[in-house]
Amino acid sequence: MLKKFSHGMIERNVILLGVLTLITISIGGLAQVVPLFTVESTIERVQGVRPYTPLELMGRNIYVREGCYACHSQMVRPFRDEAERYGHFSLAAESMYDRPFQWGSKRTGPDLARVGGKYSDDWQAQHLRDPRSLVPESIMPPYSFLDRPLDYRNIQSHLRAQRALGVPYSEEMIANARADLEAQARPDADGAAFSSRYARARQGAFDGNPAVVTEMDALVAYMQMLGTLVQFRDVTPEQLRQQ
């Protein structure tokens, strides 16, 4: 009887109900948040993860601008069927420099977390220009307009903004942002300095035309990098638990 009376009294008293709800939520929130202050980082350190190259960063901007995340996720869940189709499950470290992350919530098309290197540059560019020429059943719209020149006049400012958010771009990377972007999009350019700043970054005429740096170059360069930075054969569950 006492329990029924107490419960009914709380439900009928809006102020009391609000205060008790706030207390309950606060206790639960503190139980989740406080332990995080005892760890250095909630993201495992995985060898190979690096900031995006200037060209890849511009490509990621185009990916976000065109709403690619609405149909494609970038997160392989730790389930057998996903691992067999897409590869190793996603690690938090792989998106540690993403603002915002591109995990997605819907797959009209396939997941792209491991798409890098799965197809050639020519295939990716043609698929973007005319999806149904390669995949007849595709419902993806064409993006042939991406063959227009890429506007990268503000790339240095962009890297500075990313550094303000915590991405470890050095002064050297910022100072050479334009040169690095152009070097990556031109396979015949001297890429020694560029490669020294961005490990495992590949040069190429991603759109098939080395004469002009286009939005297609940037987007294909970004997609061809996805899932290629971490050597998953060297990553074991035991290593992840220790990091």
TrEMBL record:
InterPro entries: Cyt_c-like_dom, Cyt_c-like_dom_sf, Cyt_c_oxidase_monohaem-su/FixO. This is Cytochrome-c oxidase, cbb3-type subunit II. Keywords: Heme, Iron, Metal-binding. Residues 54-163 form the Cytochrome c domain. The keyword Iron applies. The keyword Coiled coil does not apply. It comes from Sediminicoccus rosea. It comes from the Bacteria. SUPFAM superfamilies: Cytochrome c.
